[in-house]
Write a structure and sequence with these properties.
Layout: H1 3-24, E1 35-43, H2 49-65, E2 69-73, E3 86-92, H3 95-103, H4 105-117, E4 118-122, E5 125-126
Antiparallel strand pairs: 1-3, 1-4, 1-5, 2-3
Helix pairs in contact: 2-4
Length: 128
């Protein structure tokens, strides 16, 4: 193999490696068709930490009981607006699952307790 042919092969290999690395490093994201339910919570004054935790643990219990719930998030790393104290997120497979959650007897039972200890909440649902 001649020196110039080796140089051309090396340059082609370098270009292929560079292109492969560039394409691999691109930011890839998806636009899923699930429903995200976000709840920001203000607790009533005097609510115990145990009751707050019971309400949040109840979200996990709902996920175990109600079909169509894919994921839950319970830990807050930053709150805004700042006058809210806690949050949770539920990801539903689709609109039908979100609607079934709202009407499910387990949700109704959990809501009785939750509404008794929360001052206010904001709960938008987001989808693509």
């Amino acid at each position: 193999m001649s020196k110039s042919l080796r140089l051309i092969c090396a340059l082609l290999l370098a270009a292929a490696l560079f292109t492969g690395g560039y394409l691999t490093a691109q930011n890839k994201f998806a636009t899923p068709h699930t429903i995200i339910h976000v709840s920001l919570i203000q607790w009533k004054a005097g609510v115990s930490d145990a009751d707050k935790q019971k309400a949040l643990d109840g979200v996990k219990d709902l996920a175990a009981k109600i079909p169509g719930i894919k994921n839950v998030w319970l830990k807050v790393s930053r709150m805004q607006p700042r006058d809210y104290h806690a949050a949770f997120v539920i990801e539903f497979e689709d609109r039908a699952a979100a609607e079934a959650y709202a009407e499910h007897p387990a949700h109704a039972e959990w809501s009785k307790f939750f509404l008794s200890i929360r001052e206010a909440s904001i709960s938008p649902q987001i989808s693509n």
